[in-house]
Amino acid sequence: MAVVAGLISTRLVVSTAEDLTRQTMSDQADVIAGQLADSKLGIRRVIDILHGQGISVVQRQRTGNLVGADGRAVRAARQAGLERGTLDSPVHATIELDGDRLLVEARAIDELTAFAMVRQAAVARGTGRALTGNIVLALGIGLLVAAAAGLLLARRLSKPLRRTADVAASMSQGRRDQRAPVEGPAEVALVAHSVNELADALHRSESRQREFLLSVSHELRTPLTAVLGFAESLADGVVTGSDVPGVARVIGQEASRLDRLVSDLLDLARLGAADFRLDVTRVDLAVLLTGAADVWRARCAAAGIVFRLEVPPGPAVVHTDPRRLRQVIDGLAENAVRMTPAGRPLVFALATGPTSATLQVRDGGPGLSDEDYTMAFDRGFLHSRYEGTRPVGTGIGLALVHGLVTRMGGTIHAGPAPEGGAAFTVTLPA
């Protein structure tokens, strides 16, 4: 852009210099014509003065002849029209002659006599070239200064950027302990800070995934070990007679537990897929929740937990997938039973409104902190937080519940329950 501006400026300078020269000649011609008409100045004196300025003078005599000391000037004046009988107006002409450009200014003195001033345009161009040289010099100096400043700025920017790029490359190879130096201009420092935050986030995510995989592996191994152990006992004849039915029941229970865990893992993996199936139909939530309550009332009684069902009279109809919604209720109930001590309550509640219906599973367990409620549906979060201090599961259940409710077009949130524990609230559009 600077070079283009310089070229344009050079052209403008040359053109402007020629225009100024022509304007000066025109003004001089007007003054001289007036003085010659008033006989205040002799033509010989005019010729001497203008010759010193590099301007040739051509006269048109009363006979019509053109007279001048410079033959080229005479030819230029003739081409400009000085031989015409009467100059009705001033003549401003540029004549190309023998490869040169000549500026011609012609004026009438009276009806028969006139004169012309002739000057080479190259003189004006010489002035333009001098100005052009100055512009080119200034432009060259400016470009050198800009190049030097750009080089210094590039070095200042490239050094921290290279370090940040090296850290990003290390991260792509699995390194999570590298951090980019936060230095340099604000924008570069912001890039380094963002890369560091990304590294921290990746480290936390991968740590959580490792913990999740470890917990899932443990949960899978527990029923698998029981199944293998009892199966070997049956195969070796260690268990015989009346003990066989009991062992078979244990194997069936552990196999069912294993199957349920694998199914949950598969559902969690398929939730984001476009082909995840929902069989949406008309569902009465009161009937669905009552049916689930019959199952969980018995399980709560076996664990010494006080079960309570709160269902308003009348139907509560929504359009949803009943099988997936029952899976949500069972997942929340299983989590609540695990956390609720004997003698404390577990509540299934249903509430309806003009535009939505709300299902709640509340427990009288120890509850969660405010931070835990906001992170409760993150896969494996509660498992990693409370492992060793509470009877936690694999960390799959709540994540799966959240995904299922979201796919059904509803919302779910966690918060404290009036019973003292946690309340999980599912809201579905009516």
What coarse outline follows from CA principal-axis ratios?
A: rod-shaped
Measured between the Cα atoms of the first and last residue, the distance is: 65 Å
Annotation, overall tally of beta strands: 12
Question: Number of helix segments?
Answer: 11
Class by alpha and beta content: alpha+beta
Overview of this protein structure:
This protein is of the alpha+beta class. The chain is 57% helix and 17% strand. It is built from 11 helices and 12 strands. The protein has a 5-stranded antiparallel β-sheet, sandwiched between helices. Helix 6 (243-270) crosses helix 11. The radius of gyration is 50 Å and the shape is rod-shaped. The two termini are 65 Å apart. The model has no long low-confidence stretch (mean pLDDT 81).
